[in-house]
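Why Peptidyl-prolyl cis-trans isomerase? Reviewers of the renewal asked for a concrete example.
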Amino acid sequence: MEIAKDCVVQFHYSLKNSNGVELETSHGGSPMAYLHGHNNVIPGLEEAMAGRNAGDTFSVTVPPEKGYGEFREGMLQRVPVKHLQGAKRWRPGMVAQVSTDKGPRAVRVVKVGRFMAEVDFNHPLAGQELTFDVEVVAVRAARSDEIAHGHAHGEGGHQH
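Here is what the prediction returned.
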């Protein structure tokens, strides 16, 4: 089955920055799953997936505007340390998760005080050109509940 809108895609990937440094990989774990055509992965990766089939392997380099966006100045904000999720002790450079009115958001810790932290709301990968090495593991038609919810369910996808 060819990857198209309303397909659930399972894939393994390795993500590298423009210097070739591996930032993350799914190898050694379960493949990632997403519902194609529903903005569940960055645009540049989703575009590169279209038309592929299970068993395909490829590399794609994604510019910032089709990835996590350009780096924007003025995205610093002070938040209570107790609102940072992901660690017990915080240091500059660490990535935390905070809850916003638009859902959870990754932020980079810039400065930490006793009660307040200064965080950068740019995505930690904003402004970077990224290369994905991808192996498409499986492709199937989405179920009606997955389409209604806008995401894949089951292994590698969202668990309800």
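The longest helix spans residues 43-49. This is the kind of structural detail the renewal will allow us to pursue systematically.
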